[in-house]
Amino acid sequence: MFPFFSLSGQNGQEKPPLIDPPACVEVLFSEMSSSVKYAVEPIKFDQGLTLLKGRVSTQEVFALSNSDLVPGKYEGGLKLWEGSLDLVKALCTEIQDEKLSLSGKRVLELGCGHGLPGIYMCLEGASAVHFQDFNAEVLRCLTIPNVRANFVKQQHAPLATNELESNIPAEVRFFSGDWSEVHKLLPHVWEKENPKSSDSSSEGEPCAGYDIILMAETVYSISSLQTLYELTKKCLSRPHGVIYMAAKKHYFGVGGGSRQFLATVENDGVMASSLIAEVADGSSNVREFGLVYDNGNSGRSLPIYIISLLVCLVRHLP
């Protein structure tokens, strides 16, 4: 386990100006954009997996050029970040090694952008996969087209959007909005005051919350770390839910990073975290994998996740 540093003394970063976030909305599959040019290309993974990912113009969608982040307006959802690919690799290894079963599992991908980790979970049999991004435009112009492209590929036949939606075995839904408000729209939220939440699985009823939360490159801004963490506490099923996080060790200019987020978790004490390993391949800042889970259930399945993620990292180190 890596040493964590305190959040104290990290407030020298200038806070971005307060801007009202966009309204939280559910974006329907049928709202996929037909006006923005969408080009698709394959992404091949070492495990024999191929996913399709789209490419759209930030200039065309947001009237922005060469911008990955405009606080309050655009949060980089149209760019494919390395952490998203790292997360797919880890999940693929988990499933292939029979360390992770998705049958009956509810999955939430936060800050989804292209949505490749969530798409992979959907293809592998999750019962529900919900995608969240700050911008509704990202969902309409990129995430939903990516879901469509990957399932059309799987069906080996062209399908209309309404036909495709009915042929996807999982419940697939899309939600946009700020992390401080979007939980009000999400269908599966942990309600600690609900007495059935902690033991409902023994009664044959599904637990509240999401079984798996996916986060790739979501911890980039120090100003939003606490909000993101509070959202995960509201959404993760307990005591058996797990968060998979892939991120850079540090994001220059915005102050966030994997160590900062895991320090936030540790300082709170309600949930537990482990930083599993790091990857330094020379192509970007050091990237890291971490897990977050219920603090009262740290001994249940953590060793399996640690071992399998370490195996995944060893396989993919240069």
Describe the 3D structure.
The protein is of the alpha/beta class and 318 residues long. The protein has helices spanning 58-62, 82-96, 116-123, 136-155, 161-167, 225-235, 258-268, 302-316; strands at 25-27, 39-44, 50-55, 106-110, 128-133, 171-176, 212-216, 242-248, 271-279, 287-294. It is 29% helix and 19% strand. The strands form 2 sheets. The protein has an 8-stranded mixed β-sheet with strand order 1-6-5-4-7-8-10-9, sandwiched between helices. The chain has a two-stranded antiparallel sheet with strand order 2-3. Strand 9 and strand 10 form a beta hairpin. The longest helix is centred in the middle third of the chain and has 20 residues, at 136-155. This is protein-histidine N-methyltransferase. GO terms for molecular function: protein-L-histidine N-tele-methyltransferase activity. Its EC number is 2.1.1.85.
